[in-house]
């Protein structure tokens, strides 16, 4: 039973940074912009948050600093891709490389000492219920916040006019412009939001998940978030499920290594990536659904007609 | 009283062409003003400039005496200016009501808005189901959505760029009632159409454009359509020659007992459709859009295949199971009703668009595209059909609506098909070019090809067809000989089953002209 609870909570925690990053990217891509630089934005967010903690700032401020770091990085991408109409693939890749450089640079003097991780919650009464308490009510606040963000984003995308505007801009910016929407401004907002969320994801890694500075601590989680969005066929619920699947495989694989299963550990480490992609590919077979949710203008530069 | 809209010296150039050249005009409140001109004259460009969707190189625009500053469609909408785009400004992936919600500025209550749409659209004689996705609508239905979207706003200035190009005659009658009502309440209307009888019926004044310049003004109600046509085209209209047809012995297209389920839950089921088209004749398929045309067209063109191979035969060969490409190999050519997206790839050059269907005529060798050949092929179409374009290198989307239509029809005719399926052949084409396209269709059939024309325009069908079929609720009538039928009969057949449910009502089609 304890092992089950450990796997369950481990899964939820491991999935949290992916939920932040992938949901952020989902919003960006729904507006028709492809930002491949999540990995870079996460690393910058991680460095900013870690730096704020060692500078003695309170934890909430550190997390906000991480989010703002991610947003600042995304602004850079926004200027390149939206104002100067640089190829979005190139601008995103550049951001990924730039972000890992910046975080490595900032991290030079972070030292190797662990910091005090983000506290777990202890909710009176609820946290003390046997089994249910440890499974659901002893996480740190960011875990709950990620779930809240899932509901907020789903509601925004499919229940509000703002979400409708965002989705339709992703389908056809020309048409949106033709009926009077400021396409570029809205895309900037989406990109900034994606940056905030990636920054949060990075912050979560450095101050909660592994409260210890390691260079390149994202270890490809930015890229897996990107893949999640695509294979989830641009639907929030599938992003969430995909993140949990990835989290679960990560934890199982760690347990497997701990148990000393006779499989090379490199192969085991690759398992979460493989499994997530395989499952998502299988569920994204329905072409009609795909066409319906795919932002048709994705990665195409847009300049308002003159 | 200052004019509702005043344009002063508007000039706008695109690469290789001056689309608007020093245009000035003004429109008073309550005035219905037509803008006339042949394809590519610069009408749509001018409308986009008025609406702020395009910016003039020079010139000023005044609304109620005040200059419009920082002009975008958003500022126009705030000023009460609304526009129906020639090529529609609708999002395909979302529903009708969501599309309309994006344009109306009040609270986001889709249920209330849907009720309002149902109610208003029925009142205007353009019934639309607010919950359908635009992707699944025919162009005629999309046009209704565009118009209803504008009418919902109580505009001060309404710009209508060919709003009736694919509207049914009875919807047009209702639309004109509505527009007159709006005008009497002080709304100014700019109306663009190639249908001169409509202009004469509706418009108080007209400005005529040719090659981007104002070449004259007219009072349509006091002019004959011949005079108007002459002002537009600047030459006499070509006369149609329809020689008697000599149908071939065996049918080229034979449809036998074709039954097919609806495309989706809003589609129409085809019930036991049978007809044939012989070489040397033109057969017209009349009907109010949304009566199974979409299903029939996709089955005939090969976009959808059918399990019973014998239900469609081309040149005596079972073809219902063949895909579009295999059917084209049998000598079929096809012009779909959506010219942007289905008929052409908008951002691609004209020569590339030509290769899309003409690749069997030797333009592709060993898997490589013969660019020179494709270029001269496209150039020939441009010349023969008088397409106004900046050469074969121009992108499809840079062409005016009518010119793109001419190019697509020309491309298919240049393939010298044995069987030619064409939907809305003269959609948005000016009177001169329409006459030319019709003549070309007649000539094509007289040289032995079988031609099937699907159109909502009865006049057009009566002008060129030898036999007429009517589709209604998925059933196709027995053929009627053109010379032995009349508009009343066709009109009744078009609405027969619908009678009594109010929407398509009495045989108004028939009495329209
Ligand atoms: N975006 C563009 N790029 C290049 N050329 C353009 C563009 N838009 C329009 N043109 C050119 O400007 C000219 C005027 O086009 P416009 O669409 O205004 O014609 P129109 O009068 O509306 O014709 P139609 O009756 O066929 O709709 C055409 O020759 C067209 O090729
Ligand atoms: Mg036009």
TrEMBL record, chain A:
Species in which this protein is naturally found: Aminobacter niigataensis
InterPro entries recorded: ABC_transp_permease
Subcellular location: Cell membrane
Membrane topology, as annotated: Multi-pass membrane protein
Transmembrane spans: 6-28, 40-57, 63-82, 89-106, 142-158, 188-210, 222-246, 258-283
Pfam name, any one: BPD_transp_2
UniProt keyword terms in alphabetical order: Cell membrane, Membrane, Sugar transport, Transmembrane, Transmembrane helix, Transport
Name recorded for this polypeptide: Simple sugar transport system permease protein
Primary location group: membrane
Keyword Cell membrane among UniProt keywords: yes
UniProtKB/TrEMBL annotation, chain B:
CDD domains: ABC_Carb_Monos_I (cd03216), ABC_Carb_Monos_II (cd03215)
Pfam families the UniProt entry points to: ABC_tran (PF00005)
Molecular function as annotated in GO: ATP binding
Domain ABC transporter: start-end pairs: 5-236, 253-498
Upper classification of the organism: Bacteria, Pseudomonadati, Pseudomonadota, Alphaproteobacteria, Hyphomicrobiales
Organism name: Aminobacter niigataensis
Stated family: Belongs to the ABC transporter superfamily.
Protein name: Simple sugar transport system ATP-binding protein
Superkingdom of origin organism: Bacteria
Keywords from the named record: ATP-binding, Nucleotide-binding, Sugar transport, Transport
């Amino acid at each position: 039973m304890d092992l089950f609870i450990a796997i369950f909570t481990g899964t939820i925690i491991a999935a949290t940074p992916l939920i932040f990053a992938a949901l952020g990217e989902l919003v960006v891509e729904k507006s028709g912009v492809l930002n491949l630089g999540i990995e870079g934005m996460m690393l910058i967010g991680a460095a900013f948050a870690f730096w704020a903690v060692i500078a003695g700032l309170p934890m909430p401020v550190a997390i906000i600093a991480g989010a703002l770091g991610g947003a600042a990085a995304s602004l850079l991408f926004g200027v390149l891709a939206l104002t100067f109409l640089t190829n979005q693939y190139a601008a995103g890749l550049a951001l990924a490389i730039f972000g890992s450089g910046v975080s490595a640079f900032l991290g030079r003097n972070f030292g190797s000492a662990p910091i005090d991780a983000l506290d777990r919650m202890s909710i009176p009464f609820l946290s003390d219920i046997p089994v249910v308490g440890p499974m659901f009510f002893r996480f740190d606040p960011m875990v709950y916040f990620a779930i809240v963000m899932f509901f907020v984003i789903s509601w925004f995308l499919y229940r509000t006019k703002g979400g409708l505007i965002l989705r339709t801009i992703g389908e056809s910016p020309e048409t949106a412009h033709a009926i009077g929407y400021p396409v570029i401004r809205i895309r900037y907002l989406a990109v900034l939001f994606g940056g905030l969320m990636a920054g949060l994801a990075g912050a979560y890694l450095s101050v909660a998940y592994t409260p210890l500075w390691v260079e390149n601590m994202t270890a490809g989680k930015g890229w897996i978030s990107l893949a999640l969005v695509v294979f989830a066929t641009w639907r929030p619920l599938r992003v969430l499920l995909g993140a949990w699947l990835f989290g679960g495989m990560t934890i199982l694989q760690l347990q497997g290594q701990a148990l000393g299963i006779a499989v090379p550990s490199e192969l085991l480490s690759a398992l979460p990536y493989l499994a997530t992609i395989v499952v998502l590919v299988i569920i994204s077979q329905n072409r009609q659904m795909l066409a319906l949710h795919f932002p048709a203008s994705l990665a195409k530069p847009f300049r308002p007609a003159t | 009283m200052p004019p509702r809209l005043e344009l002063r010296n508007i000039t706008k150039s695109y690469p290789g062409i001056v689309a608007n050249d020093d245009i000035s005009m003004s429109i008073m409140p309550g005035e219905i003003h037509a803008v006339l001109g042949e394809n590519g004259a610069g009408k749509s460009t001018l409308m986009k400039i008025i609406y702020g969707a395009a910016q003039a190189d020079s010139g000023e625009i005044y609304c109620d005496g005040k200059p419009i500053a920082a002009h975008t469609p958003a500022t126009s909408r705030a000023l009460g200016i609304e526009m129906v785009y020639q090529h529609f400004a609708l999002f395909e992936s979302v529903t009708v009501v969501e599309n309309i919600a994006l344009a109306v500025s009040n609270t986001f209550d889709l249920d209330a808005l849907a009720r309002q749409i149902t109610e208003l659209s029925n009142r205007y004689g353009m019934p639309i189901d607010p919950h359908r996705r635009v992707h699944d609508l025919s162009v005629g239905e999309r046009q209704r959505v565009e118009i209803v979207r504008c009418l919902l706003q109580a505009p001060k200035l309404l710009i209508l760029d060919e709003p009736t190009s694919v509207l049914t005659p009875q919807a047009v009658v209702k639309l004109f009632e509505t527009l007159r009502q709006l005008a009497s309440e002080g709304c100014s209307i700019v109306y663009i159409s190639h249908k001169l009888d409509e202009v004469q019926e509706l418009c108080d004044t007209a400005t005529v454009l040719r090659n981007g310049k104002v070449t004259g003004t007219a009072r349509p109600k006091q002019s004959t359509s011949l005079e108007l046509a002459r002002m537009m085209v600047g030459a006499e209209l070509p006369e149609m020659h329809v020689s008697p047809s000599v149908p071939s012995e065996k049918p080229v297209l034979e449809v036998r007992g074709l039954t097919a389920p609806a495309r989706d839950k809003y589609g129409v089921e085809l019930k036991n459709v049978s007809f044939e088209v012989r070489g040397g004749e033109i057969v017209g398929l009349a009907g109010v859009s949304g009566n199974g045309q979409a299903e029939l067209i996709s089955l005939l063109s090969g976009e959808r295949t059918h399990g019973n191979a014998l239900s469609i035969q081309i040149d005596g060969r079972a073809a219902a199971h063949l895909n579009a490409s295999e059917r084209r190999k049998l000598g079929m050519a096809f012009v779909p009703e959506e010219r942007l997206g289905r008929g052409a790839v908008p951002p691609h050059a004209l020569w590339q668009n030509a290769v899309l269907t003409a690749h069997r005529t030797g333009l592709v060798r060993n898997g490589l595209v013969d660019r020179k050949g494709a270029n001269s092929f496209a150039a020939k179409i441009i010349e023969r059909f008088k397409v106004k374009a900046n050469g074969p290198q121009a992108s499809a989307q840079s062409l005016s609506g009518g010119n793109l239509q001419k190019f697509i029809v020309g491309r298919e005719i240049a393939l010298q098909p044995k069987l030619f399926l064409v939907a809305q052949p003269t959609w948005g084409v000016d009177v001169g070019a329409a006459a030319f396209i019709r003549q070309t269709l007649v000539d094509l059939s007289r040289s032995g090809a079988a031609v099937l024309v699907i159109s909502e325009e009865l006049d057009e069908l009566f002008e060129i067809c030898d036999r007429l079929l009517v589709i209604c609720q998925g059933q196709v009538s027995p053929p009627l000989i053109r010379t032995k039928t009349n508009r009343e009969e066709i009109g009744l057949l078009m609405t027969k089953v619908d009678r009594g449910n109010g929407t398509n009502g009495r045989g108004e089609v028939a009495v329209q002209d």
